[in-house]
């Protein structure tokens, strides 16, 4: 089976650690061979991360961005920002491949680990675990 030249070029770029095709994530600009930090947008993203780390509330951090910067994002976008490898200095490709330390990170590895812990702690329980008719059954 013959692969398309575009896919082969993307695979070569992946091996070189170049960013995937498409727009750069919010807070970054596309440089020649890597993402570079967009100072104005990166300040917004950093403030979002700091607010989330301080209070542990996703919706609170989203409200903070809307009040302080007038930047309205949905909670699902905010969730994606928190878990996306790009903000940790890694590149993420289409099939979930992650190449580590390819550009300047907006959050450190320690902050990223803290965010993961907070998200795990805030993770909702499945709907069946707290059902009224089953909660006292036994």
Rg to the nearest angstrom?
Answer: 19 Å
Q: Structural class of the helix and strand makeup?
A: mainly alpha
Helix content: 40-55%
For the termini, the CA-CA separation is 58 Å
- Distinct helical segment count: 6
The topology string of helices and strands comes to HEEHHHEEHH
Give the amount of beta strand, in percent: 5-15%
Strand tally: 4
Characterize the biggest β-sheet: 2 strands, antiparallel
Taking strands numbered 1, 2, ... along the chain, how are they ordered across the largest sheet?
A: 1-2
Shape: globular
Low-confidence blocks of residues: none
Mean pLDDT: 89
Strand and helix map with partners:
Elements: H1 5-16, E1 28-30, E2 35-37, H2 39-55, H3 58-69, H4 75-83, E3 91-92, E4 98-99, H5 109-122, H6 132-135
Antiparallel strand pairs: 1-2, 3-4
Can you tell me about this structure?
The protein is mainly alpha-helical and 138 residues long. The protein contains 6 helices and 4 strands, in the order H-E-E-H-H-H-E-E-H-H. A two-stranded antiparallel sheet has the order 1-2. Strands 3-4 form a two-stranded antiparallel ribbon. A hairpin with a 4-residue loop joins strand 1 (28-30) and strand 2 (35-37). Helix 2 crosses helix 3. The radius of gyration is 19 Å and the shape is globular. The N and C termini lie far apart (58 Å).
């Amino acid at each position: 089976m013959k692969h398309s030249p575009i896919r082969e070029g993307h695979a070569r770029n992946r091996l070189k650690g170049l960013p995937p095709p498409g727009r750069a994530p919010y807070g970054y600009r596309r440089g020649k061979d890597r993402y570079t930090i967009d100072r104005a947008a990166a300040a917004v993203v950093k403030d979002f991360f700091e607010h989330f780390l301080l209070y542990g509330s996703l919706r609170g951090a989203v409200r903070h961005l809307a009040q302080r910067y007038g930047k309205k994002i949905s909670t699902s976008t905010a969730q994606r920002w928190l878990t996306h490898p790009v903000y940790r200095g890694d590149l993420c490709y289409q099939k979930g491949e992650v190449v580590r330390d390819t550009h300047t990170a907006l959050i450190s590895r320690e902050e990223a680990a803290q965010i993961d812990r907070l998200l795990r702690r805030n993770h909702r329980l499945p709907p069946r675990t707290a059902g009224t008719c089953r909660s006292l059954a036994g």
